[in-house]
Amino acid sequence: MNFKLAFIGFGTVGQGLAEILLEKKEMLSEKFDFNWSVVAISDVIKGSIYNGNGLDMQKILELVKSGKKLDEYPTGFKGMNSIETITKTNADIIIEVTFTDIKTGEPALTHIKTALNVEKNVVSTNKGPVVRMASDLLKLAKIKKVFYGFEGVVLSGTPAINLAKFTLAGNIITGFKGILNGTTNYILTRMEEGMSYEKALKKAQDLGYAEADPTGDVEGLDALGKVVILTNVVLGKKITWQDVERKGITEITKEDINKAKSEGKRWKLIGSAEIQKGGVVKAKVWPEKLPLSDPLAGVSEATNALTYFTDELGPVTIVGPGAGRRETGFALLIDLLELNRIS
Q1: Where are the alpha helices (H) located in 93-220, listed in sequence order?
Q2: Looking at the 3D structure of the chain, how many domains does it have?
Q3: Residue 163 located in a structural domain
Q4: Per-residue confidence in pLDDT tens, the chain, 343 aa
Q5: Helix H segments across 89-126?
Q6: CA atoms in the 13 A half-sphere facing the CB of 267
Q7: Distance CA 188, CA 182 (A)
Q8: Out of 55, 113, 216, 298, which could bridge 221 as a Cys pair, Cβ 3.0 to 4.6 Å?
Q9: Domain membership flag for residue 47
């Protein structure tokens, strides 16, 4: 297949995907018959550019990495906003990678709805729309006979959703538990080595794992969003933010860490959901002392991990990176290749 791509947002994740597509262009064509051209980019800071015959992505990357605007690209139509880029260009896949407002899902929610309504495929790493209305968006995609992929919203490039959907197909998945936030896992790893919470957080911020305002990570909000997504999409049970019990790691002390060590255990911030009798779901994000025999206990640093509980295989655990420009860019590639496979 030969797809025409449009980027809505062209920050680190979009650029990460663009680099992968350029580097692997030949391999993707030969091995998967996946051929592509980028026809449009719209970014609130960098500007926008459209050329229905395709853009030179090497030049585009050089331009934005040198701090220049897309207006300085020598050819093409300039000045279209995101909605115009979605509706008025000849792109058949919209790559939605704008910033995330986890509570409202905007502006990504409007972008995705607009694209699906005009019968364009969408791949996105935006958590907000999936937390807000995953089932509605998937239903809309089905009605319009297009594809909506969001593999990267849970564990970045580590395939959490596709693992459940394809590789574990035929199993009944009754629940999951996981380390769904790399920042908190990094902080707990440092604390186990003797650092205070404050120093470990500062180090996480220095390394770019934690934001200047780390609330979303350390209070468990990021993990909570992922619990909602996995419960809705993988377990098939509709829950919202309000249905998830939540506690972060801010109250864990050095004493707590040492006490767990003496018991042969290790603190982790765990996001989990379980289908109980009667089909009721119990979902929470909570610090837990795990025995060292638990596969999640051995996962350190800014790494994520997820265990699915299945009827045929028992617990199945996947471990991998949960963030990063190339890793999240790769998650978009997973969805692009899935779309290519079914087209």
Answers
A1: 108-117, 127-143, 152-155, 160-162, 182-192, 197-206, 215-218
A2: 2
A3: no
A4: 899 999 999 999 999 999 999 999 999 999 999 999 999 999 999 999 999 999 999 999 999 999 999 999 999 999 999 999 999 999 999 999 998 777 789 999 999 999 999 999 999 999 999 999 999 999 999 999 999 999 999 999 999 999 999 999 999 999 999 999 999 999 999 999 999 999 999 999 998 888 889 999 999 999 999 999 999 999 999 999 899 999 999 999 999 999 999 999 999 999 999 999 999 999 999 999 999 999 999 999 999 999 999 999 999 999 999 888 899 999 999 999 999 999 9
A5: 108-117
A6: 28
A7: 10
A8: 216
A9: yes
Distance CA 108, CA 106 (A): 5
Asked whether 309 and 315 are in contact (CB, 8 A), the reply is: yes
162, part of any domain: no
198 burial (CB, 10 Å; 0-12 / 13-18 / 19+) is: exposed
Tell me, yes or no, whether 311 and 337 share the same domain.
no
Same domain, 248 and 224: yes
Kindly state whether residues 131 and 176 are assigned to the same domain.
Answer: no
Of 246, 245, 244, 261, nearest to 188 (Cα)? 261
> Are 151 and 134 contained in the same domain?
yes
The whole domain housing 249 covers 168-321
150: nearest Cα among 95, 197, 100, 231: 95
| 127 included as an active-site residue | no
DSSP state of 22: H
Which entry of 226, 265, 268, 284 is annotated as an active-site residue?
226
Q: Are residues 291 and 332 in the same domain?
A: no
3-state secondary structure at position 28: helix
